[in-house]
Design a protein that fits this description.
alpha/beta, 4-stranded parallel beta sheet, 8-stranded mixed beta sheet, Urease, subunit C, domain 1, binds zinc ion, TIM Barrel, single chain, 18 helices
Length: 471
């Protein structure tokens, strides 16, 4: 009896002190029973994800029944989880009067599971950088933005706000200004830049260790461009040029101003030579140059003369000012000659085949939509899913297509230690899908929830974010 009297209080003390030394581990969010898609292998594993301050801090089998505390848990049974999508080519632009309309595009990306965009240049850099900061601080709903800031081009370039370069001095000044702005990469455009200034810009960015992406003036060859150090080639025109047996002859005709960009296209396409292409692919692979095919916008613009977009459901999310910028490309498509229209459609077909060949040769691709003002009917958000679909239509597997979004995007911008896969310590930018995208790429659109920046967006919240944007 005496013994019991003493033992009970001792047990209580022991129990309390063990609670003190081993409190329940607490998390902001735990996602249970989801099928995690490994983008490197394509394997599916049922796992629980434990998230704290926006990062994945623990990954466990659902069989692990260690107790925990969580501010929020999601039962993700029957959900397929992969890194939030990256749209690796978008634009915020159109001048000050379109700032609000551009800002309104941000929730459109999130609602489509896109947690990161790579802004490939425009004239709204101060606003874009403001949004970038506000989003990172959790004050604004939108994807993480990586931006090139203003593009580099020659004098009187097509796009407003471009930095004009001719001399080495100009090049240094332009790159200095981008380094002051701390942009995430350098984008070079080809409307007016000379071949010489273009190559010199690439050499200087390479020397400074900056990441570059660009178009390419047709007065230089693809090999010269790759040798000068470009990191990513936007669009396939330039890749096709490098795969043509007549590249040198066509380049000379352009230098002599005998033909222009669009006239060169059928010549280059007819000159496509498999052996030349294989050499070019090997070079791109060897130098780790990424290629951004932008297939969906290619198709959209190639068929502007045939397809009636008047009833596109996505029109209602676009501001009136942005819709007005669509006019330019529509009018020029309608003005084009019969031959030009036909050439463009053939080119579009050809680019599908070229994409598949690049992928087969091991060249890394980036899924980018090129959505933004002026790019008619290429709607932010959905167009990235259309791009993935277009890739699969070329014969790529859904896994290969999926890899070109978050996985390759993060590697290209050297953010792969924090992004691009679902792994311990990485950012919990996630999308939960109601069906398996490895079986059907259209399933990327069956979005149940999006997790970005420590916030969970449910299907209902995403729908109401879209509803708020309707005209
Ligand atoms: Zn673009």
């Amino acid at each position: 009896m005496k013994l019991q009297k003493y033992i009970l209080p001792i047990l209580v003390v022991l129990y309390v002190s063990s609670c003190k030394t081993h409190p329940l581990e607490s998390y902001d969010l735990v996602i249970q029973n989801g099928q995690i898609i490994d983008l490197t292998t394509g394997k599916l594993t049922s796992q629980d994800l434990y998230i704290k301050e926006g990062k994945i801090v623990k990954i466990e089998s659902p069989e692990n029944d260690e107790p925990f505390e969580a501010k929020k848990t999601i039962d993700a049974s029957n959900n397929y989880i992969l890194p939030g999508f990256w749209d690796n080519h978008t634009h915020f632009r159109g001048g000050d009067s379109l700032i609000i309309e551009n800002k309104n595009l941000l929730p459109l990306f999130l609602a489509h599971g896109i947690t990161t965009v790579r802004d490939a240049g425009g004239d709204l850099t101060p606003s874009v950088m403001q949004w970038q900061k506000a989003i990172d601080a959790g004050e604004l709903d939108g994807p993480t933005i990586y931006t090139s800031g203003p593009k580099i081009d020659g004098p009187n370039g097509t796009w407003a706000g471009s930095l004009e370069v001719v001399t080495d001095n100009d090049i240094n000044r332009a790159l200095d200004s981008l380094e002051v702005l701390k942009t995430d990469f350098v984008k070079i455009y080809d409307s007016r830049i000379s071949g010489e200034a273009y190559i010199n810009t690439l050499k200087e960015t390479d020397k400074r260790g900056l990441i570059t992406s660009g178009h390419m003036p047709f007065t230089v060859t693809l090999k010269e461009t790759v040798d000068a150090g470009i990191d990513a080639v936007e669009h396939l025109y330039y890749i096709m040029k490098g795969c043509s047996a007549v590249e040198n002859e066509v380049t000379q005709m352009l230098k002599n101003k005998e033909i222009g960009f669009w006239q060169a296209m059928p010549l280059l396409q007819q000159g496509y030579q498999s052996s030349t292409a294989q050499e070019t692919f090997a070079l791109l692979k060897d130098k780790n140059v990424y290629v951004v095919p932008t297939l969906h916008i290619g198709k959209t613009l190639s068929y502007l003369d045939e397809v009636d977009h008047e009833n596109d459901p996505y029109l209602r999310y676009m501001g009136k000012g942005i819709l007005k910028t669509y006019e330019g490309r529509i009018q020029s498509a309608l003005r084009a000659s019969e031959k030009a229209r036909k050439d463009r459609k053939e080119l579009d077909q050809f680019f599908g085949t070229l994409t598949k060949s690049l992928n087969d040769a091991g060249v890394k691709l980036l899924a980018g939509s090129d959505s933004g003002a002026y790019n008619s009917y290429t709607y932010p958000g959905i167009s990235l899913h259309k791009e993935l679909e277009a890739m699969v239509l070329t014969g790529m597997t859904p896994l290969e297509a999926l890899r070109t979004s978050a996985y390759n995007g993060a590697h290209f911008l050297k953010k792969d230690t924090t992004h691009g896969t679902i792994a311990l310590g990485k950012q919990a930018d996630l999308v939960l899908l109601g069906a398996n995208p490895l079986e059907n790429i259209n399933n990327t659109q069956k979005i149940n929830s999006v997790i970005h920046n420590a916030k969970v967006y449910t299907k209902e919240q995403l729908a109401s974010m879209l509803e708020a944007l309707t005209n």
